[in-house]
UniProtKB/TrEMBL annotation:
Residues 304-434 form the CdaR GGDEF-like domain. This is Purine catabolism regulatory protein. Transmembrane segments: none annotated. Belongs to the CdaR family. It comes from Tindallia californiensis. PANTHER family: CARBOHYDRATE DIACID REGULATOR (PTHR33744), DNA-BINDING TRANSCRIPTIONAL ACTIVATOR ADER (PTHR33744:SF1).
Length: 551
């Protein structure tokens, strides 16, 4: 990587101390960064050198060792990330072997022929001085950028302004992925349209893979192919409370990305993390007020409800509008701490706002432990119902992959006119959430679709339902358990097939006479006559009661 915390080899070669020196191989590495200068008397020194070092030596080693070992020295130097190898060729040799120079050319690793009359100290001291001056200048620039970023925060600016500062200093396009959305900024002027259009897909691919990576909290630098060009990319995670809340990405399209750019990204991600933390704190306080408002609104205490109605304007609710409540409940499949509450809040906020942006429907979201309560309102009752049902069914399909460990379910309450009736819609939504599986809607259930269960699920009926079940279906269930028969299954199939015995037999893959025999047994055990419409209705309701009671 081209680091800007030093000087390039090209700049080194222009210094006075290097006037009689020249590059004899690996010319394409002329932009390598030199951050240190070191001397090698023994090839074992390669074990202790660092990246971006300009390593000085004599040709003594090249004179003593075989051609293969000489080439190996060049390969090892390149692998260690050295910026270049400076060699005093004379008096040991007249020139380095051609094979050694070819190896350096293949690796784009520069070999510099040093003036044999020039002491190493006369090379090291000026280069160190130049590197020190460059690093001091960079530190001053980084400090200035940090001040700019903090000033944005202190003035109450937003993340978009922070991102623009980053793009301007990097002179390259940058993207911030946070709160379920991507924010783009360009720096260094307009870039090629094809490249600009290729960036979102490139970012999307990274984000999809990032969710699977265990080390997603670490800085990543790689090369990507965009429009048949190899382009360097830097990705810095946004870490808040030891959790990755997003990523800041930059592509080296206009100018190279180096150490200075990395420092800018680090400073920016720290500032963005502070802003995210601030927003989390604000949302936490706001949510506490919403929770209090919602609990008062659905309370049976008339004084609490009246107090909530008086506060409606504070939450941008019009008391005379139509209202519907959705309950979104998440159950963790894993026992591990997921820590995804903030992600869930952001996801719901972002998707809800996007979904309702161009409608008359307003939303108020309340978060409590593992559930989210969404109050939707509109002066247009029909539009509210249509959008609430569509939103309730679609929201799960937009769930991020990283929340896949949660089993989200949605319950949708009926539409009521007047804010004072929100408690009714809330109760409906809870019942829809609980009993959705009874109507084969385990993920998203609308209260109106519960059919007869809307009546049966009333709490005051529980005792009576138990008695009804014991007198009607319980003997049949007990018989099945004792005899290992399939009478209950046969009865269910009978109702599913509209009372047609032939279709019932076909659905069960049994002989017609077998089915007929089972139906006669069912009537004997239950004491019910299936030709009598009252008994037939009682048994059908009993099957639904069984599901409701989870027997």
């Amino acid at each position: 990587m081209i680091r800007q915390n030093g000087i390039t080899l090209e700049e080194v070669m222009k210094m006075d101390c290097m006037k009689k020196c020249h590059i004899i191989a690996g010319h394409r590495g002329v932009f390598n960064t030199v951050s240190k200068v070191n001397i090698m008397a023994d090839p074992d020194a390669l074990e202790w050198v660092n990246e971006c070092e300009f390593l000085l030596t004599t040709a003594y080693y090249f004179k003593q060792e075989s051609l293969e070992k000489q080439k190996e020295l060049v390969r090892r130097s390149a692998q260690r990330g050295l910026s270049a190898l400076g060699v005093k060729i004379r008096p040991y040799l007249e020139e380095l072997p051609l094979e050694v120079l070819e190896t350096a050319n293949e690796l784009d690793f520069p070999i510099v022929e040093l003036d044999d009359s020039l002491p190493f100290s006369d090379i090291m001291t000026p280069i160190f001085q130049e590197v020190f001056n460059k690093q001091t200048s960079l530190l001053q620039r980084i400090e200035k950028i940090h001040e700019q970023l903090m000033n944005v925060m202190l003035r109450g600016g937003d993340i978009e302004q922070i991102l623009q500062i980053v793009a301007d200093h990097l002179q390259n396009p940058v993207m911030l992925h946070i709160e379920g959305k991507n924010i783009w900024r360009q720096g260094g002027g307009k870039i090629d349209d094809q490249l600009w259009q290729a960036l979102p897909e490139n970012a999307k691919q990274f984000l999809e893979h990032a969710e699977k990576r265990k080390d997603q909290g670490q800085f990543l630098e790689d090369q990507v192919t965009l429009v048949q060009k190899r382009i360097r990319r830097m990705t810095m995670p946004i870490v808040v409370k030891n959790r990755v809340s997003g990523f800041l990405m930059a592509w080296a399209i206009k100018t190279p990305l180096g150490g200075f750019d990395l420092s800018v990204l680090e400073s920016a991600t720290t500032t963005i993390a502070l802003e995210v933390l601030r927003q989390m704190s604000i949302r936490d306080v706001e949510n506490r007020y919403r929770v209090e408002f919602f609990e008062d609104l659905i309370s049976m205490d008339s004084h609490r409800k009246e107090k909530a109605l008086e506060k409606a304007a504070l939450f941008h609710l019009t008391p005379t509008d139509s209202f519907m409540v959705l309950v979104i409940h998440g159950e963790e499949k894993s026992t591990e701490m997921s820590g995804d509450l903030f992600d869930k809040i952001n996801w719901i906020h972002y998707e809800t706002e996007k979904y309702l942006r161009e409608t008359t429907v307003k939303s108020l979201m309340i978060f409590k432990t593992d559930s989210l309560y969404v109050i939707l309102s509109s002066p247009l009752e029909k539009e509210l119902q249509r959008l609430a049902l569509a939103y309730g069914k679609e929201i799960l399909s937009r769930q991020p992959k990283k929340q896949a460990h949660l089993n989200f379910r949605v319950g949708i309450g009926r539409c009521y006119i007047g804010l004072e009736q929100v408690d009714q819609s809330y109760e409906d939504a809870i019942k829809a959430l609980q009993h959705g599986p009874l109507i084969d809607e385990p993920q998203t259930a609308y209260f109106e679709d519960l059919g007869i269960y809307k009546i049966l699920c009333h709490p005051c009926l529980e005792k009576e339902l138990n008695r009804f079940y014991e007198k009607t279906l319980a003997p049949l269930v007990a018989y099945d358990e004792k005899k290992s028969s399939e009478l209950l299954k046969t009865l269910e199939a009978y109702y599913q097939q509209g009372g047609n015995l032939r279709k019932t037999a076909q659905s069960l893959y049994t002989h017609y006479n077998t089915t007929l025999y089972r139906m006669e047994n069912i009537q004997k055990i239950t004491g019910m006559d299936l030709t009598n419409h009252k008994d037939r209705l009682n048994l059908e309701v009993a099957l639904k009661v069984k599901k409701l009671l989870n027997r």
